[in-house]
Specification:
There is one protein chain. The chain is an alpha/beta fold. It folds into two domains: 220 residues, 3-Layer(aba) Sandwich (D-Maltodextrin-Binding Protein, domain 2), CATH 3.40.190; 207 residues, D-Maltodextrin-Binding Protein, domain 2 (3-Layer(aba) Sandwich). It has 18 helices and twelve strands. The strands form three sheets. Strands 1, 2, 3, 6, 9, 10 and 11 form a seven-stranded mixed β-sheet that branches.
Length: 440
């Protein structure tokens, strides 16, 4: 769920011990109410904002199963605790929230349960092909999708009007608009290309056709990170960077968040979760007029939709009652009532089709975007037409090496082809060290 990691401290996170609410949980250690004390308790770790009402709704409507929820920290804070507990043989929750990109890592080490064996496949039609694929391996699903990050272009209509820019539908048009801003003497840049973009750059590579990982069996892996598509994309952005048409400041900092809203940038290529945070960033230009458009395409006749971020619920291998845990993972966001809380109170973008495709969600108007129905106009198509992406079993390492490559090109130290070749070499080396049989 990248929205929390990119929002620059949008939430205050609670630290808890590894043993808090583990092994089925206890009412006294939960951050929510246990409403049926005789029911089976399922412990859960999750860091969604305003999540307590969703948990309480589940407990109110389920007499046989109750959730004992704990916020164990966001992203890597939670993952460190979870991995430590798995290795120790105790202390892990029954159900754990995971970003989609780390699910393959936990499938690989056996930390999470194959939910297809517990009947989860019956829910497949409730999700898009891409959403289900992101949580699966070998035809089996290991986590239940919750929210996603279908991508669009958020832009300043007032700045586009001021400088005579047309809303770009292709990347060539996007570059032309960037040049127009510079030629007009504007202090505003078209957008930012952050060195620490990681998931952002990965999505851009994927849009051009990059398929960096193919996993077969437990130890066979194909790695192709310096492919033609990635070279095309990085060369495109490096050209804009070297011409000083886009910025290169790191994302997810307080300054960066302010620069998104104070006129430093005319647009941002972003996931559907960003609008929920954009309006809360400090230093905003009060005269700004925001709108959303589809992400630019390389070939508009054959559009490719991409995704940045997303999360899911998995059942840990330490769950004592795995069937009860699966009931929680499958059902916590399995009602319209729960999803209206998630949408209205937590700015989540749903992957559950009954709400995703509902008139309520499609027709929802957003005051921040001048009343635009951004889901109908952009994000619904982006979500339903997303086909999925194969992450590696060691995605954090991959991201670290990608950051090195992008920073090297942004700073003019390496050409894109050289940087991507180094990226490929570093990841292949690591994969082999981890015991994978790698083909390139």
């Amino acid at each position: 769920m990248k929205r929390l990691l990119a929002a620059g401290g949008a939430l205050a996170l609670l630290a808890v011990t590894l043993t808090g609410c583990s092994g089925g949980g206890s009412g006294s250690s939960c951050q929510n109410k246990i409403m049926h004390s005789d029911a089976t308790q399922v412990s859960m770790w999750a860091w969604y904002p305003n999540f307590k009402p969703v948990v309480n709704l589940f407990n109110k409507t389920h007499k046989k199963v109750q959730i004992c929820w704990t916020n164990a920290g966001a992203g890597n804070d939670e993952y460190t605790k979870f991995s430590t507990a798995i290795q120790a043989g105790s202390g892990a929750p029954d159900v754990v929230m995971l970003e989609s990109e780390v699910v393959p890592s936990y499938i690989a080490d056996g930390s999470i349960v194959n939910l297809s064996t517990l009947g989860a496949d019956k829910l497949k039609d409730n999700y898009s092909e891409g959403a289900w694929s992101d949580e699966s391996k070998g035809g089996d699903v290991y986590a239940i999708p919750v929210d996603g990050g279908p991508v669009g272009m958020l832009y300043r209509k007032d700045l586009f009007d001021k400088y005579g820019l047309t809303v770009p539908t292709t990347w060539d048009e996007f570059a032309a608009d960037a040049q127009k801003l510079k030629d007009a003497g504007a202090k505003t840049l078209m957008t930012d290309f952050p060195g620490n973009g990681r998931a952002y750059q990965t999505a851009l590579f994927a849009q051009a056709g990059s398929e960096p990982f193919e996993l077969t069996g437990k130890t066979d892996m194909k790695v192709d990170l310096d492919d033609q598509a990635s070279n095309k994309v990085l060369s495109y952005w490096n050209d804009l960077v070297q011409k000083k048409l886009v910025g290169t400041e790191d994302a997810s900092t307080t300054d960066y968040n302010t620069h998104l809203v104070n006129g430093t940038y005319a647009s941002v290529i972003a996931a559907a979760w960003l609008p929920g945070y954009l309006q809360g960033f400090t230093g905003a230009d009060k005269s700004a007029q925001w709108r959303v458009a589809p992400v630019p395409q390389w070939d508009p006749a054959n559009p490719v939709q991409i995704n940045i971020g997303g999360s899911a619920f998995a059942v840990s291998n330490q769950a004592k009652d795995k069937k009860a845990a699966a009931t929680v993972a499958e059902g916590i966001f399995g009602t319209e009532a729960a999803w209206k809380l998630g949408i209205e109170k937590a700015a989540l973008f749903p992957l559950w089709k009954p709400i995703l495709e509902s008139d309520y969600f499609k027709e929802k108007a957003y005051d921040f975007f001048g009343g635009q129905q951004i889901n109908k106009d952009v994000f619904l198509t982006a979500a339903t037409e997303y086909k999925g992406f194969q992450f590696s079993p060691f995605q954090n390492l991959v991201y670290d090496k990608l950051t090195d490559a992008v920073n090297a090109t942004n700073k003019g130290k390496q050409q894109p082809a050289q940087a991507l070749a180094g990226y490929q070499k570093a990841v292949v080396s690591y994969a082999k060290q981890q015991g994978y049989k790698v083909t390139e």
